[in-house]
Amino acid sequence: MKPISSRRARAIVVALAAGSLALTACSKNEGGDSGADSKKDQKEASVQSKAVTYADAAGSTGPAEAVPGAKTGGTINVYQEAGLSHLDPGQIYVSDAGQVANLLFRRLTQFKEDGKGGVSVVGDLATDSGKSSDGGKTWTFTLKDGVKDQNGNAITSADIRHTVERQYAKFIFDGPTYLQTWLSGADYRKALPNGGFDGKHLPDSVLATPDAKTVVFHFDTARPDLPQTLAMAGYAVVPEKTDTKEKYDKAPVATGPYKIASNKVGKELVLTKNTNWDPKTDSVRHQYADSFDLQFGITESTQTKRLIADQGADKNAIQLTGGVESTQIQDVIGNAAVSKRTVKGYQPYVMQLTFNLDRVKDIKVRQAITYAVNSKSLIAGEGGAYGGDVAPNYFAPTLPGYEATYDPYGRLKTPQGNIAKAKEILKDVPAAEKKVVFAYSNSEAGQKRKVAIEDALTKVGFNVVSKEVDSASYYEQIGKLNNPYDLYITGWGQDWPSAGTVITPIYDGTQVADGSSNYSHVKDPKVDALIKKALSEDPTAAAATWKEAQHYLLEKVIPAAPLWYTKQFQLSGSNIGGARYGSVSSLIDINRLFVKS
Amino acid sequence: MTSPVALDPELESNAEPVKAEPKLEGRSPGQLMWQRFKRDRTGVLCAVVVILYFVIALAAPLLTKLSGTDPYTLYGQDPTYADKPVLDQFGLPLGYFGGVSGDHWFGVEPQYGRDLFAMLMYGMRTSLFMALGVTVLLMATGVIIGLIGGYFGGRTDYWIGRVTDFFLSFPQQLFFIAFMPVVTAFFVDPREATPTYFRALAMLIVLWLLGWMGMARLVRSTVLSLREREFVEAAKVSGASPWRIVRKEILPNVVTPILVQFTFSLPSTILTIAFLSFAGVGFVEPTPDWGRLFAAAADYTEQDPAFLFFPGLALVIFVLAFNLLGDSVRDAFDPKSGR
Amino acid sequence: MFQFIIRRTVGALVTLILIGAATFFLFVAAPSDYASLACGKDCSPARLEDIRQALGLNLPIHQQFWDFMSGIVMGRDFPTGHCSAPCLGQSFYSGDMVWSTIMDRFPTTLTLTAGGAVVFVIVGVGAGMIAAYKRGTMVDKVATGVSMVLSSFQIYVLGPIVLLIFVYSTGWMDNPAYHPITENPWKWFTGLLLPVLVMATIFTAQYTRMARSSMIEQLAEEHVRTARAKGMSNKYVFFRYAWRGSMIPIVTVLGIDISAMLGGAVVTELTFSLQGIGRLAVDGAVHKDLPLTMGVMLFGAFFILIVNILTDIAYAYIDPRVRLS
Questions:
Q1: Where are the beta strands (DSSP E) in B245-316?
Q2: Does pLDDT of A17 surpass 60?
Q3: Based on the domain organization, do C79 and C108 belong to the same domain?
Q4: Which residues 97-116 of chain B have a CB within 8 Å of chain C?
């Protein structure tokens, strides 16, 4: 009764299982070009970084130019991993809800792209992109005729006033705060604690609505960027009469081509046609598909697999904010049919290794680290050439004023780090200062970055102590003024194409506080002066000032070591037409999509 | 039909009338068990395999000296190795079968290009010993608690049962996430990295605290039916103390489910540790960890199956050998199972 | 028996309250809360305070705990509306009532659990018994060998492979999803078939081995030998006589597995993109969503306690020698 043969039987089973996998691996990987041309991407990006123009009434009049080959009808499936936490436009600041907001909500202004890199601000509810007077301190908007919400009610200036004022109420806390602080200062909630719901309103000296079609904003300083700010989803119109306050987050009123048919948060959101949307009043959006079916809970890995396979319902599918998963990029690039169905472009984010200037006081240490970091290994984790590019400076390729060749630390020449130079700089630095505490987000991705950073810095002679930070509260922890860390990786992206939304939040010395985005705690008077100057200048003059500020920061202060630019790479199903990269949203341009058959 | 007690073959062949009569010694159950085990060739082979695994794991530094690699160097990203590229543009290994070559016996890992052989050897060391420690603790605790609850019954069983219920329903993930930072902040200097042995200890405690319930309930359920049996009654009548009864009468009869569960627990603990590591509360990068290696490889199943193959095959063989060993031990232990 | 049930029910209630308290406490002890997470980048203390107020996080801990627990029995009022009993609070992240979210996801989890249990018992235990019956033969070796190899697979490896074969390359099956049984029973069945099979493949082995070794032990028992001596056929002895004694460890493991699955099979749900209770638990932990986490924990704990009580009662029925105290 000796069970000898069972061993053999089992061995066979094991061998079969292993063998089938082995067969797939047996082919030789010769390497070769991935087809990602960094220079070409950057050239395309520089097109993305052209300055934004403000259009007149002609550019703002609908209907929007038809998408070639477009057909009406069909349902577009949208796959997304995490659910949307807010549908109240006033609470929307993040890109996933922002993308959905492009279909649902109209604002005073919106962005229009010509597909060749030209971006302009046009009037959405307004007849044009706004008229400025009084040196840019006053902005006047006139509303278009015939714009109605999904219930058939016309949009008036009272609704615009309501949209702005409700942002002052306590229950709106997640959206942008630019307009409120520009109108009423940093402590804006004090100006209108009940958000206009109790009959009290903002004074005419701040916000005036002389008639049902006119809205006037008064600021205490020039605000040349206002039309771009008003294009954000956070400032989309909320009709006054149908505002249900906290309940609005689940059932907002739509003004765009689509409205909400059903909403199961975290599971499924179905949008159907808004019959009260008049295409003649909208110069950007279309209403080709009958409905959008957003499905949540689908991981990026699964989204990619489904879209590559392109079976059944996946043919009509797109990704919301997910992209091609980094491990599957080869499968997409290597297959011509799949590769055709992608859109790509730069995202506005620059990832950098920020120094805590309260602790890392020796500029030599900062210089050495900036020379030593291995951008290439970090980018490898993001998907290689399709996930990111080495960043030589603080401006993303999407920002007007981007200089592709401005590379004071030779990052482009030695993307894997210049160990020799770093060692040389560190020669005379005392050992005590070579110990650095690096905080990393305690997630899979964060751990991989930690490996890369530790590896690069240890080679140069640093003693790297890595401390994990709970990934959910990462930004809160490093945002504390007295955080116990020396280095941390942060990322920042422009809110609209202006350096003011990049340099100001992260390098303005007056903004150093708990929770502020000035993670390096840099308080340089020269930088602050330059910022103040640039914010009051017109765009052309401001560009030169921002350039000076960046150069000074990167060469003389070094509050952070630039690491990489992030790229977006999205797939769509074979039955989706009109797919184009939207440079403003850094996602597929959802307003142009149609179902082919 | 069950066979009568076999006369030991060694005894038979040793009969030499010239020498003094060999004393007929009674063999203890332990010795009998060892005899039976030695006869089971599969069992012995599996025992050898399992021991081999532990030996390999211990000898990891020696083995990597032989291979000339280490588990920490990023061969694919380190500029000092730029002349010997191991990864392609997509971060996938060049060459055959995931980059198997004279330099890298098992190939390299995608993206960073670390040597898979070294990572596996060291990873086995971390995972095996950690899992062994945890599983032994779990088993011991679970068995003791299950025995006490099952045998003594009444109020003891009730309260032990409620405590078991509590821990079973306990939010484990939440506990991991909350526990580690608090304990780390308490014991570790903020300017120092958290030492690996500290992580290991914390994990041991947490896994132990939250893992004994399954075994306890299993043992308890078996004991519930055993304690009414005649031989237990007989022991009681003859005046044996409860502890003696538990040790000598009940425990040997509970061995079967315990063994099955043990051989199941060890490999699954290896993988639980991996998940903890992913969540950041276990062994973090760059500490090599077999389970985490396996889980990371799962992402590359299609693109680089070789990455999954080596750790996966090692795991399959280990699980097989370990489970078969458990079966053999059980068969050897239980005289009634008729071999 | 009645007294037993009463005692256990009381115990279960107390345990639930303790679990609630433990979860609450752990949440509070953890590094940060939902407000700081929601506040995200560019967070001023004023904005943080606004968020905390909006969510009721500025109230004292015991007040929050009391509000939550009493809400379960009495219902609660929120700015967005009334939440009737059993009210498990309002999710910080989604703003939905936790109870309705759980009820929405529960059918998926229930189907997975039921499917899994059916396969474990029929295939797993069945294979184990057959292996024990035909002990030592090829059938036995193949059954145990295959089950051991399969058990060393992992869902996150086997799942994607199965999906690749059946969904992506060939299109034979649709993406796994839950379809309500009331709408279309066939779609309900096929929709979750793949996840159930994958889950079953891996976990059945435990049942096979447990059943096999339990049966082998039972077969050596005196009452079985007596039955055989009396002339009962092997088959009868096996399938009608001996199996009861072997069931106790199986029922125990089944109970633990069922209650664990009802609390959410996280890895299965993640691998197959299903929306079950497991995902909710993960989402709750990731977003630091206290009401959601509390709700899911209590929900899962409820099932664990119920199943444990039922399992204990089952012991008494299976093995009359067992006396429940």
A1: none
A2: no
A3: no
A4: none
Q: Which residues contact A73 (CB under 8 A, 6 or more apart)?
A: A288, A289, A290, A595
> Closest partner residue to B96 among A26, A329, A381, by Cβ?
A26
Do C263 and C140 fall within a single domain?
yes
Let me know whether C163 and C31 are in one domain. no
Residue A563 CA, distance from chain mean position: 17
Burial class (CB in 10 A: 0-12, 13-18, 19+), B254: buried
Q: Could you tell me if A352 and A490 are in contact, meaning their C-beta atoms sit under 8 angstroms apart?
A: yes
Determine contact: C13 vs chain B, CB below 8 A.
Answer: no
Domain co-membership, C150 together with C231: yes
Q: Which residues of A touch C146 (CB under 8 A)?
A: 13
In angstroms, the CA A255 to CA C322 distance is: 69
For A54, A169, A250, A273, A536, the CA distances from A86, given in Å and listed in that order, are: 30, 16, 7, 21, 34
Rounded to whole angstroms, how far apart are CA atoms C212 and C246?
9
ipTM value for the complex: 0.84
Select the residue of A174, A245, A312 nearest C38 (Cβ to Cβ): A174
Task: List all chains that touch chain A, counting a touch as 3 or more CB pairs closer than 8 Å.
Answer: B, C
- Domain edge (last residue) among C83, C113, C136: C83
Q: Does A439 touch chain C (CB under 8 A)?
A: no
Residue C259 lies in a domain: yes
| Same domain as C132, residue C19 | no
Q: To the nearest whole angstrom, how far is the Cα of A465 from the nearest Cα of chain B? A: 5
Using CA atoms, how far apart are residues B228 and B226, in angstroms rounded to an integer?
5
For residue range B281-302, what is the model confidence (pLDDT) as tens digits?
778 888 888 888 888 888 888 8
Structural domain includes residue C21: yes
B294/C contact by beta carbon, under 8 A: yes
- Looking at the structure, tell me whether residues C251 and C292 fall in a common domain: yes
Residue B311 contacts A where some CB pair is shorter than 8 Å: no
Domain residue limits at C17: 2-83
CATH number reported for the structural domain that contains residue C177 in this entry: 1.10.3720.10
Residues 102-141 of C with CB under 8 A from B: none
Asked if the structure places residue C281 within a domain, the reply is: yes
Q: Total domain count for chain C?
A: 2
- Say yes or no: B152 contacts chain C, CB-CB below 8 A: no
* Separation between Cα atoms, residue B115 and residue B75, nearest integer Å: 7
- pLDDT tens across A492-531, in order? 888 888 888 889 889 998 888 887 889 999 999 999 999 9
Write the DSSP string, B240-264: --HHHIIIIIIHHHHHHHHHHHHHH
Instruction: Say if the Cβ atoms of C80 and A250 lie within 8 Å.
Output: yes
Position C217 in a domain: yes
**Cβ of C19 and B166 within 8 Å?**
yes
Query: Which residue from C minimizes the CA distance to B169?
Result: C301
Same domain, yes or no, for C48 and C175? no
Looking at the fold, whether C210 and C127 belong to one and the same domain comes out as yes
Give the contacts of A376 (CB within 8 A, at least 6 positions apart): A390, A415, A416, B77
Q: What is the pLDDT of residue A13?
A: 38
- Placement of tokens 């209403």 in the chain: A287
What are residue C81's DSSP bridge partners?
C78
Is residue B228 classed as helix, strand or coil in its secondary structure?
coil
The residue out of C83, C116, C138 marking a domain boundary is C83
Give the minimum alpha-carbon distance from B147 to chain A in angstroms, rounded to a whole number. Answer: 34
